[in-house]
């Protein structure tokens, strides 16, 4: 008989490993770019592989459901437009600035979710709504510091834009995709995101297969480790621990990104930037807890929206 303590331990381990897998994603992407792979090509490969794995698993398990026309349209909007935009901005940031910095700036999104949720619900923003975003913005100010001539403004704006796009995706996605299981949602979101990046690559010429062969290995690593494995383990963790605790533990992700960047890429952040990152994460934690107080569970902050990620209910 499985004890509560054993289930909790399993949930903690699964969530932390998931966060580590997500945290390593910008580092894997950095190595992929080093082979000559473009952002668009990497994202198309990532989502194509992830979609194939999830949809094949659903097919084998007999869980491919018949979707309504409205559900198809919603998933196309969420995956093909909103999540694709978030991923493009985030991976562009990773290409231009430190992966650690990009991961820290992405965690502006829980505070933004608090504000956007209050606006959508037409409620008067209280301190629990405004506070997280103010704390996160204070952390952002420390991370950016004094504007220097060599600061990659485009990369910084891309990272902040990814956080904004992610928050918008989460607020909309949590309200329109609740009828589908997380695995079904993630599979179809990945499929539509693949289509978007293939079209984008063909139109802009960014879909280029002239990179070194080892690039495929890094693309597969991003897809299998930092997407499929990370999402599945988050589902396991959220089921065992509940969405609030799983969301808070998932903040181990930017910590992994910072450490991995330092160990593997030789990059470093200043003391002020590290302090700013800690403040950003404090605002993120407050945002998650504030959302939980309002709704009983936090806004999605895990894999289906992160896939890009949702704090999901497991489908078994």
TrEMBL record:
Q: Which InterPro entries match?
A: AA-Vitamin_Transporters (IPR050638), EamA_dom (IPR000620), EmrE-like (IPR037185)
One Gene Ontology CC term in the entry: membrane
Q: Which family does it belong to?
A: Belongs to the EamA transporter family.
Q: Kindly give the Pfam families that the UniProt entry links to this protein.
A: EamA (PF00892)
Stretches for region Disordered? 295-316
What protein does this entry describe?
A: Drug/metabolite transporter (DMT)-like permease
Superkingdom is: Bacteria
UniProt KW keywords? Membrane, Transmembrane, Transmembrane helix
Where in or outside the cell? Membrane
Coiled coil stretches, renumbered: none
- Bilayer-crossing residues are 12-33, 39-60, 72-91, 97-120, 127-147, 153-172, 184-203, 215-236, 248-265, 271-292
Record domain EamA: where: 10-144, 154-285
Q: Look up and give the membrane topology term.
A: Multi-pass membrane protein
């Amino acid at each position: 008989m499985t004890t509560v303590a054993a289930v909790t331990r399993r949930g903690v381990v699964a969530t932390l490993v998931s966060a580590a897998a997500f945290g390593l994603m910008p580092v894997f992407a950095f190595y992929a770019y080093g082979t000559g792979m473009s952002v668009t090509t990497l994202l198309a490969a990532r989502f194509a592989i992830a979609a194939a794995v999830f949809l094949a698993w659903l097919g084998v398990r007999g869980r491919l459901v018949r979707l309504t026309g409205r559900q198809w349209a919603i998933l196309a909007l969420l995956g093909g437009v909103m999540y694709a935009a978030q991923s493009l901005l985030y991976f562009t940031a990773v290409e231009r600035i430190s992966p650690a910095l990009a991961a820290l700036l992405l965690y502006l999104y829980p505070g933004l979710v608090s504000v956007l949720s209050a606006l959508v619900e037409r409620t008067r923003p209280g301190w629990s709504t405004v506070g997280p975003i103010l704390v996160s913005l204070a952390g952002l100010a420390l991370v950016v510091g004094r504007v220097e001539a060599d600061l990659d403004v485009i990369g910084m704006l891309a990272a902040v834009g990814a956080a904004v796009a992610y928050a918008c995706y989460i607020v909309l996605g949590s309200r329109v995709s609740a009828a589908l299981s997380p695995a079904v949602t993630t599979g179809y979101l990945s499929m539509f995101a693949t289509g978007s990046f293939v079209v984008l690559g063909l139109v802009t010429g960014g879909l280029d297969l002239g990179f070194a062969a080892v690039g495929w290995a890094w693309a597969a690593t991003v897809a299998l480790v930092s997407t499929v494995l990370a999402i599945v383990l988050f589902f396991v963790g959220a089921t065992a621990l509940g969405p609030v605790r799983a969301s808070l533990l998932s903040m181990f992700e930017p910590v992994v990104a910072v450490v991995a960047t330092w160990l593997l890429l030789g990059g470093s952040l200043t003391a002020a930037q590290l302090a700013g990152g800690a403040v950003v994460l404090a605002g993120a934690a407050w945002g998650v807890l504030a959302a939980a107080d309002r709704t009983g569970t936090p806004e999605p902050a895990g894999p289906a929206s992160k896939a890009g990620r949702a704090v999901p209910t497991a489908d078994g």
